[in-house]
Amino acid sequence: MNNDMAGKVALVTGGGSGIGRATALAFARRGAAVVLADTNDDAGQAAADAIGRDGGTALFLHADVSRSADVHTMIAQAVARFGRLDYAHNNAGIEGQPGPMLECGEDEWDRIIAVNLKGVWLCLQAEIRQMIGQGGGAIVNTASVAGLVGSEGLAAYSASKHGVVGLTKTAALEYARAGVRVNAVCPGFIHTPMLVRFTNDDAQANARLARAHALGRLGTPEEVAEAVVWLCSEAAAFVTGHALAVDGGLVAR
Fold first, then answer.
1. How many other C-beta atoms are found inside a 10 Å radius of the C-beta of residue 11?
2. Contact 44, 16 (CB under 8 A)
3. 240: which residues sit within 8 A by CB, 6+ positions away?
4. Full strand arrangement of the beta sheet holding 33-38
5. Helix (H) or strand (E) holding 9
6. Mean pLDDT to the nearest integer, 44-55
7. Could you list the active site residues?
8. What is the pLDDT of residues 76-99, one digit of tens each?
């Protein structure tokens, strides 16, 4: 086990499953205390318990990142428990109902933008304020390959993820001199509960998505998690404002 993050504190939103859960576990393996936030209490607590069983330190907090009060309470409770916040992975997100843009209703649009884009914005504000006060930190936002290229049938989702990339670059520029690095990961098709909902875990549908990657397979949550932890680590000390595609070569096509 590499304990280079011992004494540090990491926050992961959407930490109950998929990429968020894998990232929380990866931070813990590196020695960080981990705060997991999710709207699914059972999944979030189960992830925190898994870290504890492995000898790590974790705290689960219920939080809806689209609500400013929840976000401020989340940061306040994390700092009250651990005293600081060194890393943040703003990962909470929803996929929405696929379909043509003209069939996307206003309620659906607002729901996706509220979680995927407004939620990242609210988290960034609260996290950056805390990190500036303590002398710095590192943040990684979960965007998507749908934030780098167009995605037919996912207008709201794609718009939200393009927005995350823009927020990432802007925050990186504005707060670099304050010691806060901000990057994004842009996953391709990763075998997570979100993808299972999208394809109903149909083998043929999964195979079609796998073929979109040059590597010819779906990605794993752990592969994205390793990229997130690297971006937060001192190994990436000169990396900020970058949207890293973790996509098996999808956008290279």
1. 34
2. yes
3. 172, 176, 181, 182, 183
4. 58-62, 33-38, 9-13, 87-90, 137-142, 180-187, 243-246
5. strand 9-13
6. 98
7. 157
8. 999 999 999 999 999 999 988 899
